[in-house]
Write a structure and sequence with these properties.
With 213 residues, this protein is mostly helical. It has one domain: Orthogonal Bundle (Actin-binding Protein, T-fimbrin, domain 1). The chain is built from 9 helices and no strands. Helix 1 crosses helix 7 and helix 3 packs parallel to helix 5. The longest helix has 20 residues. One of its GO terms (cellular component) is stress fiber. InterPro entries: CH_dom (IPR001715), CH_dom_sf (IPR036872). Its main location: cytoplasm. One of its GO terms (molecular function) is actin filament binding. It is found in: Cytoplasm, Cytoskeleton.
Length: 213
């Protein structure tokens, strides 16, 4: 299985300077900014030729998605071996995802790859339905915003066990850490299932509920 480039950073550790988040006039502009962030993240991890303009085209065969899922699983299993006590507090994927490496855009094989990734997100990463997407949301561009939100939430969860995260996720965690320090708040506590009690990635409601995106 492929490994992401570079070393991941855990929450609360010092990373490179984070770009400021400018106010956006519309949900479309915010969505475009999130696509740019994710494209830069995937380019840095895997050396891809990807940007906001070709972001969906690069993902639509499912090859990059499956590669990333398997890299996350490999990182999770390594984290489990290195820090078993800490790993018990974090939901970790235990299985990767199968992928057809010969899939071409628009083919059944590409749809199957995307579907396999989606099922992996639900089963192995327990991604909430509110930010999940379906195969046609990516392949036919029916719900681009949920494709983006799902990848951001996946990046947020994988960062807990060492996978480098998108800038927006690191920014959110750094703000949370600063607030905890300023207000002397306790660290997130494990929930009933032993997982840390985190909220999903917070994004403006206009993006979650905006029309025509």
């Amino acid at each position: 299985m492929s490994k992401p480039r570079g070393r991941g950073r855990g929450p609360g550790t010092v990373g490179p300077p984070v770009r400021s988040i400018r106010p956006f006039k519309s949900s479309e502009q915010y969505l475009e900014a999130m696509k740019e962030d994710l494209a830069e993240w995937l380019r840095d991890l895997y050396g891809l030729d990807i940007d906001a303009a070709n972001f969906l085209h690069v993902l639509e065969t499912g090859l990059v998605l499956c590669r990333h899922a398997n890299a996350i699983t490999e990182a999770a299993l390594a984290f489990l071996a290195q820090a078993p006590a800490q790993a018990q507090r974090i939901p970790l994927p235990r299985a990767g995802v199968s992928c057809n490496g010969a899939a071409q855009p628009g083919t059944f094989q590409a749809r199957d790859n995307v579907s396999n990734f989606i099922q992996w997100c639900r089963k192995e990463m327990d991604i909430q339905e509110v930010v999940m997407f379906e195969t046609e949301d990516l392949v036919l561009r029916k719900n681009v915003k949920n494709v983006v939100l799902c990848l951001l939430e996946l990046g947020r969860r994988a960062w807990r066990f060492g996978v480098a995260a998108p800038t927006l996720v690191r920014l959110e965690e750094e703000i949370d850490e600063e607030l905890r320090q300023e207000l002397a708040l306790p660290l997130p506590q494990p929930g009933p299932d032993g997982a840390e009690s985190h909220q999903p990635l917070q994004v403006p409601s206009s993006v979650l509920h905006g029309q025509g995106v």
